[in-house]
Amino acid sequence: MVKAGKKTVALPAIVDLDSLDGIRDGLIDAIEEGPVTISGSGVERISTNALFMLISAAETARKNNFEFAIEKPSAALTGAIERLGLGSSFMGMMRG
Q: With left for phi above 0 and alpha for psi between -120 and 50, is residue 36 left, alpha or beta?
């Protein structure tokens, strides 16, 4: 089976419970195909559940031997990660 190239999933400005289903579905499809890049530059607000979903997606990608990276995370995204003490869980996947 030939794997597709790197997929990019752009996070919306507001990543809350209302947007999680669509993001999750996009991540599932992308992780099954190969390396995944998350575009986090436009995030203005993100829920705790969304952060845990990203950690889970990164772990699934790792188990599938695919790269998982978050490119250009916004200040709101990195701030939420730090406030919740999740910095170590996101270490190694943040780019730019």
A: beta
User: If 0-12 CB within 10 Å is exposed, 13-18 middle and 19+ buried, where does residue 28 land?
Assistant: exposed
Task: For residue 46, list its beta bridge partners.
Answer: 15
- Look up residue 42 and give its DSSP letter: T
d(CA 74, CA 60): 23
> CB neighbours of 45 closer than 8 A, spacing ≥ 6?
13, 14, 15, 16, 76
Confidence at residue 2, expressed as pLDDT on a 0 to 100 scale: 44
pTM, two decimals, is 0.91
